[in-house]
Specification:
Elements lengths: L1 H21 L1 E5 L14 E5 L4 E2 L9 E2 L8 E5 L8 E8 L4 E5 L2 E4 L2 E2 L8 E5 L5 E5 L9 E5 L4 E5 L9 H4 L2 E2 L3 E10 L5 E2 L1
Length: about 200
């Protein structure tokens, strides 16, 4: 009977480890680039298998079944970061999208997606049936940029706190294989638990 318990415990530990490494994770937010929604020090539950199955010792996914929707908050490995800490940004551009920023307005495929009257609310057309609506902190000092066409198998990512975010405006698009997963909900601090 004792050997059955040991086998059961080892199996349980291996199952939890595999789930932790390839299906779910909790990440610590390293910066304020996603404020006002997500702040430095928050801990987020990451659904690592939302778009693909990725094993921790591989740099490319084992299988891919979906790509993010516009407006999703994704966690990814930034190829320009030597520390290889997880990065967190919002998906703005999908493969084939054209983006540019002019006169404090963000344009997606020729349409303005910034809020009216400097309300700092962006309404982004989602690739699903709904529209994403979220608050941003924009920078009125930001210079015009673009146009940029998002390459195949890549994403254009921006932080919600635009003046405090290093993102695709600086390092370009991110290949889909760099995704670690989708931010699902905040688990810490307790009084700010929320779904995304």
């Amino acid at each position: 009977m004792r050997s059955n318990q040991i086998v059961l415990m080892v199996s349980l530990v291996l199952t939890v480890a595999l789930l932790r490494l390839s299906v779910v994770d909790i990440v610590y937010v390293q910066s304020n680039s996603m404020r006002p929604l997500i702040s430095k020090g928050d801990r987020l539950f990451i659904h690592q298998s939302a778009y693909s199955l990725r094993l921790p010792w591989r740099t490319t996914p084992l299988m891919t079944w979906d790509i993010p929707n516009r407006g999703d908050i994704v966690v990814f490995d930034n190829p320009h970061d030597d520390d290889q800490l997880p990065w967190l940004k919002r998906v703005i551009g999908l493969p084939g999208d054209k983006l540019h920023f002019h006169n404090h307005q963000l344009y997606l495929n020729g349409e303005v997606i910034s809020g009216f009257d400097n309300s700092n609310v962006e309404i982004i057309p989602s690739s699903s049936d709904s529209q994403g609506r979220y608050r941003i902190w924009s920078s009125y000092l930001e210079e015009d940029w673009g146009p940029i066409t998002v390459p195949r198998n890549s994403l254009f990512l921006l932080g919600d706190h635009r003046s405090a975010s290093t993102d695709s405006r600086v390092w370009g698009t991110i290949p889909l294989y760099r995704l670690r997963g989708k931010a699902s909900f905040r688990v810490w601090p307790w009084k700010r638990i929320s779904l995304y």
